[in-house]
Specification:
With 250 residues, the protein is of the alpha/beta class. Helix content is 40%, strand content 14%. It binds 3-methylbut-3-enyl trihydrogen diphosphate (2 copies) and magnesium ion (MG).
């Protein structure tokens, strides 16, 4: 594959849902003597490039991890910078997002977020609701465990109210109670920044995800990296617990 071109893939080899942990902004900024917040601003531009690149290949669902429920532990300056990035994105890029046919959604907890930011995110969701090019989910103030816990809490409440027979609680029923119930399972998880961990991202949806760890810091990640990861994904054999198709029967 010439990686400057999008890979040409058979439709059944295109990942339906690609999830991205955009890590490495702080190191990228520090290497250049910039503030960590400046790294986050550069990251935003890369995020839009990634959405475009995914759309070009035919990916229908793209989820990006921009702020975790654990990232509140960072300095007030950095947290404010991150909140500012999203406010800026929702304000300045809204028209472009609508024009591109991107259906934007926010997945995360409102806890701790300014009301104006929550309103902006809901506004953008409304403005892009009819977009059909790609579903782009911004995971902001998001934690995978917290999502599972809130789903479990809803199930317990429904059982207590007599609306759910505990016998009927299975994987599909719990999945319907997640914060974004229509999100398909993640097919391909990409993490930039060199760390090889999930950091509490999409724990439920990543049960059978293929994983690509990129050494590059997120602000250095280009559409070519995304295309290469998708092309590699297309060559993998997914087994879901079955035997390899090439196995010789004994
Ligand atoms: C990812 O980049 C963005 C967030 C976690 C908000 P980092 O800010 O974690 O960058 P590094 O890992 O410190 O370089
Ligand atoms: C994961 O990156 C969260 C986001 C990219 C938003 P972190 O930088 O917070 O993860 P850890 O702390 O290295 O595990
Ligand atoms: Mg990091």
């Amino acid at each position: 594959m010439n990686s400057s071109e999008p890979p040409l893939l058979l439709p059944d080899r295109i990942p339906t849902h690609v999830a991205v942990v955009m890590d490495g902004n702080g190191r990228w900024a520090e290497q250049r003597g910039l503030s960590r917040s400046e790294g986050h601003w550069t990251a935003l531009a890369r995020m839009f490039e990634t959405v475009e690149a995914a759309l070009t290949v035919g990916v229908k669902w793209l989820s990006v991890f921009a702020f975790s429920s654990e990232n509140w532990q960072r300095s007030t300056d950095e947290v404010e910078g991150l909140l500012g990035c999203v406010t800026g994105m929702a304000g300045e890029n809204a028209d472009e997002i609508v024009k591109r046919g991107i259906r934007f959604r926010w997945c995360g907890s409102p806890e701790g977020l300014p009301g104006t930011l929550i309103d902006d995110l809901h506004e953008l969701e409304k403005a892009t609701a009819s977009g059909t090019a790609i579903n782009c989910t911004l995971c902001f103030n998001y934690g995978g465990r917290a999502d599972i816990v809130q789903a479990a809490r809803k199930a317990v409440e429904a059982a207590r109210a007599g609306r759910l027979d505990p016998e009927d609680l299975n994987e599909a029923a719990l999945a319907r109670l997640m914060l974004a119930p229509d999100l398909p399972d993640v097919d391909l998880l990409i993490r930039s920044g060199g760390e090889q961990r999930l950091s509490n991202f999409m724990l439920w949806q990543c049960a059978y995800a293929e994983i690509a760890f990129l050494p590059d810091l997120w602000p250095d990640v280009t559409r070519e990296h995304l295309w290469q990861a998708i092309a590699d994904y297309a060559r993998r054999e997914r087994r879901f617990g079955g035997a390899p198709t090439t196995a010789t029967p004994r």
